[in-house]
Amino acid sequence: LNEVYRLKKIVNDMLLLSKLEKTKVSLSGLIEINPKIIITDLIEQYKILNTKVKYIIDIEEDLKVKIDSNDLKQLLIIFIDNSIKYNNKENIEIEIKLRKEEGKLKLEVKDNGIGIPNNEIKNVMKRFYKVDKSRVNNNSFGIGLSIANRIANNYNAKIDIESELDKYTTIKVVLKF
Q: Any residues with CB less than 8 A from the CB of 92 and at least 6 apart, and which?
């Protein structure tokens, strides 16, 4: 039964990635949303699932952005799931910042997890790539960041990753208005 769930998840992830690769987002057709509402609702759901994670939220007030709310949620789910999954600390902290700077929207998710070796950062957004090759049975397929990268590309955005082993990983998404 566990194997069926695992296979179902990988098939669904592949279908999502395939769909995103064929999707063209028309920014002019999108309405502005308040990302703070979406982010805080999502965090509340995560708090119910895992009470040991501390969330630090820093979102600029009255911010509006043209992005599909499901795409914003998907990005955050991928980043938060990775922050929890790749953290070996007793006190997991995830900091989420959202700011408007110089006509750009900057979403930043920082954790206090295990980090990514510098020589691996360039590879982590490749489909099926895993930094730790020994993690074959942890429900990780190396597809999440590929999906996030595809979503970002659909909005002409860029994902940047900074990390220090055993200290933190920061993922930044910069969306142009």
A: 50, 52, 53, 54, 83, 84, 111, 112, 113
What phi-psi label fits residue 62: left (phi over 0), alpha (psi between -120 and 50 degrees) or beta? Answer: left
Could you give the angle at the alpha carbon of 117 between the alpha carbons of 116 and 120, nearest 5°? 90
Residues near 102 by beta carbon (within 8 Å), at least 6 away in sequence: none
- Return the sign of the alpha-carbon dihedral for residues 57, 107, 170, 146: positive
CA–CA gap between residue 56 and residue 110 (Å, rounded): 10
Over the stretch 68-105, which tens digit does the pLDDT of each residue have? 888 899 999 999 999 999 998 889 999 999 998 888 88
C-alpha distances (whole Å) from 81 to each of 78, 104, 109, 156 are 5, 25, 11, 24
Cα-based distances in Å from 66 to 34, 72, 148, 153, 158 = 9, 10, 17, 14, 16
CA distance 142 to 60: 32
Identify the sign of the CA torsion 164, 96, 177, 73: positive
Model confidence, pTM: 0.83
> How far is it, in rounded angstroms, from Cα 157 to Cα 151?
8
Show the 3-state SS of 23-80.
CCCCHHHCCEECHHHHHHHHHHHHHHHCCCEEEEEEECCCCCEECCHHHHHHHHHHHH
